[in-house]
Amino acid sequence: MSSIRKDLVFTFGDRHDGVIGIPGLTIDGNVIEISYFFGDAKPKNIVVISSQAGCPMSCAFCELGSEKFARNLTKEEIRDQALLMLAEAGLHGFTVDNTPHKVTVANTGEPMLNTALVDGLELIAAAVPVSFKVSTILPATKIATETLARLADFAARHSQPVQLQISLISTSERERQEMSGARLSDFHAVRKAAELWRNKNPNGRKVNASLILTSDMKSDVDQVFAILPPELIRFRFREYVPTLHGKSHGLRMISSPQLADIKKRFEDRGYDVGDWASPSPIEWRFGLAGNVIRRMYLDMLSRAR
Ligand code: SF4
């Protein structure tokens, strides 16, 4: 029996640009987010799963807002989210046999704080042939350091690519720290993580670093070039999609000329720059940042009561 169940499925868009969202329900009543992205512009269909019920990090830009942390998800709950969503995708004609798939851990929770993360990924890998991505804000804790080392070992032995994405948030250390409610790794620790990743996976992908691209957040290549150079890090440029919680913290959308200028400055210093991470039209239209589908579900329930 699955450890995660559903009682509502959201579908947005069409085959050319679409999203499926499932608020996943744990046996003990927590709600987590599971989502699925597909369309003509995507080289792989992407299952996005959660690692925790709630999150202890309280990031200013996250739709979870100040919701309390409940617990880490078990390895079976990590696996069952992916299988539940793949079964749903099958109803739309997408299977791992006819379409390449990636499982990304990026919805509810901070994956590096869950000691069951790698065991959960192992269970998924044993069930379905997929690549993986894990997105972390990289908390400054011993558990996060240990989980990252285990993940790097998993990446070295998994037959398909495993990507690590570190949400840098800002190129300013001070701004990065201020956006989180808990202590984050500084840029020296981010560099050490990227070096560990490269040493364990010399033929794998470089670590992605992502920035929250708003109109005011620092995205200055000169602040990171020396410590996070292009031979170690690939910067991922995805515009900030407004969320209610982000708006209440004064985050505002970036303009197209401002974004183009930032990308050019990074490109001129030798970083790989592309549009692969930009939100699709359907993601813009419905503001589909992480945990927004979960919030839609909870809003529907509270209106119905
Ligand atoms: S962005 Fe990620 S780490 Fe930050 S509060 Fe949201 S789920 Fe947690």
Salient structural properties:
305 residues; TIM Barrel; two-stranded antiparallel ribbon; 34% helix
On the 0 to 100 scale, the average pLDDT is 93
CATH architecture: Alpha-Beta Barrel
Order of helices and strands: EEEEEEEHEHEHEHHEHEHHHH
Report the CATH topology name: TIM Barrel
The fraction of residues in strands falls at 15-25%
Oligomer: single chain
**Bound heterogens, unique:** iron/sulfur cluster
Concise description?
This protein is α/β, with parallel strands linked by helices.
Task: Tell me about this structure.
- This protein has 305 residues and is α/β, with parallel strands linked by helices.
- It has a single domain, classed as Alpha-Beta Barrel (TIM Barrel).
- The protein has helices at residues 75-91, 117-127, 142-157, 173-178, 187-200, 221-224, 244-248, 256-268, 281-285, 292-304, and strands spanning 4-5, 10-14, 17-26, 31-39, 45-49, 52-53, 71-72, 101-105, 131-136, 162-169, 207-213, 233-239.
- The strands form two sheets. Strands 1, 2, 3, 4, 5, 8, 9, 10, 11 and 12 form a ten-stranded mixed beta sheet that branches. The chain has a two-stranded antiparallel ribbon with strand order 6-7.
- α1 (75-91) packs parallel to α2 (117-127).
- The longest helix is centred in the first third of the chain and has 17 residues, at 75-91.
- The radius of gyration is 18 Å and the shape is globular.
- The mean pLDDT is 93.
- Bound molecules: iron/sulfur cluster.
- Residues 55, 57-59, 62, 64, 108-110, 137 line the site of iron/sulfur cluster.
